[in-house]
Each structure stands twice: as C-alpha cells, then as structure tokens.
Amino acid sequence: MCCDLKRRFLLLYATQKGQAKAIAEEIWQQAGAHGLEADMHCISEMDKYNLETEKDPVVIVISTTGTGDPPDAARKFVKKIQDTTLPPDHFAHLQYGLLGLGDSEYTFFCNGGKTVDRRLQELGAQHFYDTGLADDCVGLELVVDPWIDGLWLALKEAFLLQKEKEGMSSDAVSSSLSAAPHVGHELNLSSEVQNLKLEDERVRSSDVLTQKLVDIHLVASTRDTEPSLVHSVPPVSQSALSIPALPPEYIEVQFQDTHGENPHLSSLISEGTAFEVPVTKAVQLTREDAIKTALLLELDIADTVFDYQPGDAFCVICPNNVNEVEELLHILGLSEKGEYFVCVKVKEGTKKKGAAHPQHIPERSTLKFILTWCLEIRAIPKKAFLRALVECTSDVGEKRRLQELCSRQGASDYTRFIRDSNVCLLDLLHAFPSCRPSLNLLIEHLPKLQARSYSVSSSNLYQPGKLCFVFNIVEFPACPARPVSRKGVCTGWLAELVAPLLHPNKNTLDTKGGSSSTEKISIFARPNNNFHLPADPSVPFVMVGPGTGISPFIGFLQHRQKLREEHADWEFGETWLVFGCRHQDRDYLFKQLRCFLENGTLTHLKVCFSRDSSTAEVAPPKYVQDVIRLYAKEIARVLLKERGYFYVCGDKKHMADGVSDAVVDILSMEMEADKLEAMKILAMLREAKRYLQDVWS
Known about the structure:
Elements: E1 7-14, H1 19-33, E2 36-42, E3 58-62, H2 75-81, E4 95-102, H3 111-122, E5 126-127, E6 132-135, H4 141-165, H5 170-192, E7 251-255, E8 275-284, E9 294-300, E10 313-317, H6 322-331, E11 341-346, E12 364-366, H7 367-374, H8 383-390, H9 396-406, H10 411-419, H11 425-431, H12 439-445, E13 452-455, E14 466-472, E15 475-476, E16 486-487, H13 489-497, E17 520-525, E18 541-544, H14 551-566, E19 575-581, H15 584-587, H16 593-598, E20 604-609, H17 624-630, H18 632-641, E21 645-651, H19 652-671, H20 675-687, E22 691-696
Parallel strand pairs: 1-2, 1-3, 3-4, 4-5, 4-6, 18-19, 18-21, 19-20, 21-22
Antiparallel strand pairs: 7-11, 8-9, 8-17, 9-14, 10-13, 10-17, 11-12, 15-16
C-alpha cells in the first residue's frame, strides 16, 4: 500500500502507573499493521495537539487514580475542558473513542474516563466507537483486547464518513481503504500475532494461521492433569497461540565507575515536596496472637512546613526489600556491579514511538539504587513483559509456557497463576530458570516504585508537630505459584525499621517512656482529599471504621476534643463511631476510645467483634454493617433530617460495600421508598460530599 494512503488518527493517553501508556503503545504498534498512523501523545502534552482544530478521529486511553480522580497527567486537560464558559458545540467537530481503565473494587469505577467522556459529550463531541471500561479487578485484558480488535473497523468507518463529508466519492475512498485491511492482515500475522513452533522456528508464511505442536509432552506430560505456573494442559497446551507483538527495545545501559553520590530521595517524586522526618515512636496495637499485626508510628514534623488536616492522607517513599534486590542481582549475574553507576540512554534507532528516558530513573545512580528505590520489582508482570521474556529464555518448554501465559488462549492461566497469585519477576525467574533478561529489559518493563499512601491518625491541633498513622503489616502467604511468603513492600520495611522502638505495652497510645529514634523516613502530602470533618461543627456525623479503618477517626476525635476545649461557646453536633474487629482482647486497636465518650467528644460508641463467641440469648452484631442496621432510625435521622455526614474507612470489598448496602436498606425502610429510590438518595449524598469513603482493596 502506498504511504500516502496511510490515514492518521490522534492517540492520547493519561496514565498514573503506566498501564494506559502501555495500552496506547500497543494500539500504536498495531496501527501500522492496519495501514494507519497513530499520532501518539500524553494528554498532558497540550502543546503537541489541539482538539479545538483536530479533524481526524481521536482515541483516548485514560486510567483512574485515588478514589475516582483522573490521573495526575490529565489534571490540566480536565480542568481545561471543564471550563463552564465553553459553548455546547465547542467540540462538535470531534469524533472520538475512549477506553477507560479502573478497578471495580472502588466506588467510582473508571471515573477518570467517565469524567472526560461525559464532558466531551456535553461539549458536542461524537463517538465514532463505543466507550470501553476495563476492570483491573478481573483483568484489564478482558475488555482491552476485544476493544482494540474492534477499533480498526470503527476507524475505517470513521475515515469513510470523514471523506464523504469532505466531498470525496465514497466509492473511491472505499477502494483505497479496502486495500488496507489486506495488507494490514499480512502485517498482522508477522508482527502482531506470531505463531511460534516449539522448536522455535518462525512461521514464515502469512497464510499459515495455525501452529503445529511438535513435542507437546515437553510442555505437559500426560501425568500433569492440573495446570500450574510452569506447565499447561489441553486445550491451552495444544492450541495455536495468538501472542502480542514483541515490544521494541529502547533503553541502552552503560556501566561506569563506582565514584559519586546517589540522588536524594526527594528527586524521585514529581507531586510536591518530600520531607525527611524522624520516627519518634512505634506501638504495636494488637496482641501477638492476633491474625494481623497493627502498628502505630509517630513522626516528628515540627522542623518542617508539612501541614495536614485530620482525614488527610500522605505518602511514604519506601524501598524494595534488600534481600530481594540482592537475589535479583545474583540471578542476573550482576552482584559485583551493584555499586557501579549506571548511565541510561534511549537506544539509537529504536522503533518505539516516542521513546524517552524514563522519568523515574535518575540520569546517574548506582544499579543497586535503581533496583532499590526506582523500580517496582514486586509488580505483577504485564503480558508485554512476558512476551519480551520469551526472547530471553533458552529452554524450549519454558519458552512455550511463557508464550502461553501472554497469549489470548492462555488468558485464564495468566489470571490464575500470575495475576491472582501476585507473582512478580523474581518468582518468574525462579520458575523459569533458563530465563535471563537484560538490565535494559527490566528498566523498560518494570513500572516506577510507587510511594505508599496512608491515612493520618492524628490532629496537628491536638498534637502539634506530630503526625501519627496506623497500618497492618501486609502478609502474602506462600502458594503453589509463589513458594515463598512475603511482607508488603512498605509495611514490611517500616516494621523492620521500627523493630527496636516497639513499646512493650501493646495496647496504649501513652507516649511516656518511649525510646527516641534516629530512624527517618521520607514523606510527602497526597493532594485532593475530601475526607475531612464538616466545616460546620454543629453538623452531626457518623464514622464507620473497622480494623485499621478507624485510623482517620482518631484524628477526627482528637481535633474535635481540642475544639471543644478551646471553644466552649460553640455548638457541636452529635458524633457516632462504629468500630469492629475480630477479637475484643486481641485487636481492639484503641481501647481508650471510651475516654472520648466520657469527655463528651464522642456521643455514641458502638463496637462489634466478629470472631468472639457469645452466650447471650440474642446474638450481638458481628459486623459494622449489622450494627448500622440496629440503629436504622438514628442513622436515617442524622442523614435525612439533620443533613449530617457519613464517613466510611477500611476494606472496600468485604466492608464498605456491605455498609453502603445497609445504608440503602435503611433509607428505603425509613423513607418507605423502593430500593432504586434509596440508591438515588445515596448517590446524591455522595455527590454532595456527605457520604465519604476512604477505602482500599
């Protein structure tokens, strides 16, 4: 096909952790095989595109971050299109298709994409292709792959329509474009879908659509009736495989001498100012025999300008586990080069569109610094990474299995043995010992090591110069796909860091007698948090926080207590706290809550213990949602008659959804309305920022 027949479309992506960008790059790669040219840009690069004058179709891939916000890269774009002075036909000329990424574990699923989609529609833009909403909870590829498959026909039809509007003969256009699918189909077979034989011979002919399995028993013997990470069973083991295109390499790594200094950790963040602060106290809030171990840490922020409100969140800059870094260096054969400085450059002549030096990799730092502070070595490998690892694997059976795991035919195996098992690069390298990736491949495919977010559990008014937070030490037990147990990247590191500080009195916040610490951690504020106390202190509110979900509410109550002491003439609304845990004597995190009750700061304290047995005639409620139902009339009064607030903090899947269902039932019962009407009322409360959640999956 002549190059002048290649049709252009604008491809924009907005990413937080790299997923939307990776999907956009996949679209860009496939576009050439379909005789099209994707003009790809990050949505923040508004100097490189102009939607006001864009005539070609636009494809947008956008993720969601936080509790439903567009990614940081899209903030300026969203602010621009949300200008209320824009006329309703501002984008009447625009034809677009949008793919949103999200996680249904969170209430505002795909809200980043939905926000942009809704606003473009309000401004007159038209869909040339239906919006896709991919769910990371079950696997993005379940929506992403078929959405991309259907994109090419939709683009073809959009170009036909565009040419008709421009006055060209649709017959001429049709004949010119009809060549594209044929040529694109041939390219598709050689670059997008690679049919690989087990003896590693490439299928040369574009007419061959199937793969002949020469030695199936190398992959799975007849005794292996159950699939696992390392072997497959029919039908996957006997299938022709459709695997992704091999991502082009674009990074070049050079080792230099061992002299110099690594960058300061503050240079690793782009969203605000980092503060290095000492940990002044650590308290274990749970008993040794509790199922989960909860710690409270106190930070000294007196010598910084770091400021916060109760309910705010902040981020901790954390490293990867030192033993895992050493193990990775050993497997890669780079143990002796850990302290060498590394220079990372874009490979000359790379075919990767928009190849650039990764922003999270310093211009110059040691190899160990990069693996410790810059790359998320625990990240679940994407299929594109698996595809690249195929080329680094020498054993024919291991190569085939990696091909299966990144193929469409092996999608369920990928979900079961990699995604759901939280398998990381180290696990893969142990499972497939002939796989030896290069350092540049790791830098290309491992995402940025993200700072971890925590809710503040204190009040600067109550404890000036102090910041407290509470967390459970996350545990990942061993499983067949991952034979070793691990602790969370950040919580495991923090627990090890403060081990010498842990107070012998496990169930108190009394700071007297705590030893001082020289250990410091780097933190920065997390913007855009609406999870704050009502501006009017006379407004009543309900707090629901089982387990460590109680954390922000300690700050709420400390702040409210101080306000009551300083402003005796103010009117304060009633306060409810609903707390739950497994066992009263093992993980009742803050037993001094009764102090808030006794001094009047807290009006109602309701607690439940899900694993404690009871001899009462009427069994007590087990879960916080059960408690809420017991006080239906009071909850309805606070929300409906007194226009109060309702706060929920904690686990999304196993708690927050149950609480919202309970609130819907209460509204339905007390208003004598059907469930749909009650759901609308709850949605209005969310919209009015009177039903607020700080939840995690």
